[in-house]
Amino acid sequence: MEINNNQLLRFTTAGSVDDGKSTLIGRLLYDSKSIFEDQLEAIESTSQKKGHEGVDLALFTDGLRDEREQGITIDVAYRYFTTPKRKFIIADTPGHIQYTRNMVTGASTANAAIILIDARHGVIEQTKRHSFIASLLQIPHVIVCVNKMDLVDYSETVFNDIVKQYQAILSKMTIKDVRFIPISALKGDNVVNRSENMTWHQGAPLLHTLETLHIGSDINKIDTRFPVQTVIRPQSKEFIDYRGYAGRLESGILRVGDEVVVLPSGFSSKVKTIDQMGKNLQEAFAPMSIAVQLEDDIDISRGDMIVRKKNQPEKVQEFDAMLCWLGNDAYQDRTKFIIRHTSNEQTAMIKEVTYKVDVNTLDRFKEDISMGMNDICRVKIKTAAPVMIDEYRDNRSTGSFILINPNTNETVAAGMII
Amino acid sequence: MDQYYLNYLDELESEAIFILREVAAQFKNPVILFSGGKDSIVVTHLARKAFYPAKFPFALMHVDTGHNFPETIQFRDDLIESLGARLIVGSVQESIDQGRVQEEKGKFATRNALQITTLLDAIASNKIDCAIGGGRRDEEKARAKERFFSHRDDFGQWDPKNQRPELWNLFNGKHFEGEHFRAFPISNWTEMDVWNYILREDIAIPSLYFAHERDVVWRNNSWIPDSEYLIKEEGEEIVRKKIRFRTLGDITITGGIESDADTLEKIALEVSAMRQTERGNRSDDKRSETAMEDRKKQGYF
Predict the structure, then answer these.
(1) pLDDT by residue (tens digit) across A264-307?
(2) Which of A237, A343, B16, B175 has the most neighbouring CB atoms within 10 Å?
(3) Number of CB pairs < 8 Å for A and B?
(4) What three-state secondary structure class fits B77?
């Protein structure tokens, strides 16, 4: 059997049960034949017990006991399906405002976001919130699915009006690629199969769109950034002098012979070898996990970053960021945090909370800038030692960080560098 | 630019290696939980690659229920020798002898749940701060919510509703004395991905996965192997069948499927055509809708 060269696409779905989000995921899994018979039997028997007509596709996405009992999504759940064209990972996140942190989590690694709009209600507060998060987290592709078209007689006018409403809110955001698809998750229109009820829509159904999105440019292939995770030193007879800097190439391309600089020290050298578990490579590209040897003996450890001499990140101790507060307890002034940025950890403080964003209206507030769970604020961060940063919009890896409260060890905030 | 992309299997491999290197960097005394099953074998293979050419950096920890397939134990011992790694065994029999746990009674008795105590005792007594597992999110609905780095309190418990947020590739393994983490490098792999990877890398796996002749009884919709631990029920008949196992657990609860797949290629083909989940043949998951969640909260794998 031949192993194919298909790519992996990660997408997130934000929405509530009411939008038909669970039904949509159930439909994708069901129509792409990713649901197994025993899973289907379990869902059929639960549907019957609950007195639902037919199979309730939404039940596929329920996980934890509380979610099954209350019929809600609490935490990010990951689902998998494969078509002959691609492998997909769905980060299924709850859509309520109190779960903003879970949406942010799901969005952080996504290539694409599916935003669901109920055709009967049009663009609502929740649509703005989801779109804002997709924009903030710089999800490269957004697919707006206008759902429940069956309940508005598959009306082209209703769909076009919603597209117009949505384009109006887009002006406040930076989303690079937006597409619109009229669907009915319940009936299956335009999900996997082209709808016969909406022949007026020329675009592809959702699954085909997901299969063909161009994701080759989603990772930055220009700015070479190689944060060192750990140093491999076999100290065996056979590899007596081997000293490999292990890590994942977060962006860009690295070649043997490249002139590189090690940050923060600033020492320069050349790439001697690139190893991928015993294989010698001439070049590596993101997101490959590799080990790199340099020509010169330099003291390099975890937290350092190897970059091209002619293309370096900024080395700073103060920077601006958008911060999403994740912790159960609100932010307290002058708290000392541990900042985790790539493999680098430093002590950090929030020097200033500049403003807070209302995630529903996108208005900015300069008063009442307390930060509690799910709040999103612009802040100034100060670190005790240099960090090597890029802007988040240029580089999702070197532009992102988390804050850890050293007293509780909890991850309390996630930040995107401006 | 389009020549610079990884296929899904390379991307999953890179992700798993990244996680394994994070574990090595962030923890003092990590181990791989080794069951002899294909998932923990794949994790072990990935760990070998992640630190090559250095020595294998993790000890393997096996929770031994005493109800093993002899083939699994032989495979384990051979692997340990080839890796030059240390083996830590947590014995359920010892936990029973010491009165830490009591054997289940009745004809459906298994030692599955007893493993939790043995596992947590072994983690505590060996001062393990991170146990790396082969758990995958596609296996089971509670596992779909699992983090790559999953925090356990000092009772070894998982709190699924209060998990640490995990964003980008920033993993927070900070913990207090007595607490530990579970790490799941192949979280994003499906059963099919695992088989495709085993095939691609030509990874050795126990013979039990390949079709072979065996004495079995038909129970709970699968072929349960005959063994000294099997308590035969009335009306059950031992027959000889050509079967193979899709997952490996205790010999008392692991059901086989009828199959002629005797090569990795044939297995991968067979799995791709399967219409039942692999855990469908595991009676430990059939006890209730939330059987896995309940066990995981207490500290199960």
Answers:
(1) 999 999 999 999 987 899 999 999 999 999 999 999 999 999 99
(2) B16
(3) 189
(4) helix
